[in-house]
Design goal:
This is dITP/XTP pyrophosphatase. By secondary structure, the protein is of the alpha/beta class. It has helices at about 20-30, 55-70, 105-120, 180-185, 190-200; strands spanning about 10-15, 35-40, 75-85, 125-135, 140-150, 170. It has a single domain (about 10-200), classed as Maf protein (Alpha-Beta Complex). The protein has a six-stranded mixed sheet. The model has no long low-confidence stretch (mean pLDDT about 95). Bound molecules: inosine 5'-triphosphate and magnesium ion (MG).
Length: about 200
Amino acid sequence: MTGAHRRLAPGRLVIASHNEGKVREIRALLAPFGIEPVSAASLDLPEPEETGTTFAANAELKARASADLSGLPALADDSGLCVEALGGDPGIFSARWAGESKDFGVAMQLVEDALGKAGPETGRDAHFVCALSLCWPDGHIETFEGRSDGTLVWPPRGQQGFGYDPMFLPNGHKQTFGEMDPDAKHAMSHRAKAFAKLVAAVF
Ligand SMILES: O=P(O)(O)OP(=O)(O)OP(=O)(O)OC[C@H]1O[C@@H](n2cnc3c(O)ncnc32)[C@H](O)[C@@H]1O
Ligand SMILES: [Mg+2]
């Protein structure tokens, strides 16, 4: 982003996400900062169409939509799993690979099948990206990104986290994000890294 940072005043903040897993993680990350989080679902805010071509563009359009409609600052997250052998797919389409029923068992199987087609020589490296955008009701917006690098395991392991977590083994660790205690994921995830940048800028 460009320009000066703006401080976020204590008070209500909309978490502009309809993904319960993300909302849970963002609440935990916000807990120490005296902010009163309100979810987009509890305000009945619609889920905007994600027409952006980058994580940052989608995070910005989601944050802006919620800030406009609620009159409160809004924090949105756009994130996804990028697989090197698949040219970065599913990337910004990570949610869409799970289909209408949001079944990540299906989405992980699609990733595994695509990796099988790509062949063993291409490797199993992958990374998660998280873009966090904070938009104020007057339209001022700030965006921060974080990334976690790792490899993909099969079969998936663990019941913690959400989405693609059970098949993602972060570099230097023995447990997948699906097996890790939530606090351990928060200490190192793509979301936590983006959040640390946001904290440094606006709190
Ligand atoms: O747009 P919102 O309402 O926030 O919810 P969403 O689920 O549609 O979220 P995205 O558009 O950002 O899609 C990203 C998908 O990538 C996956 N994903 C993102 N972060 C993840 C994480 O930390 N662990 C596992 N999967 C993750 C997850 O399945 C998401 O559905
Ligand atoms: Mg989405």
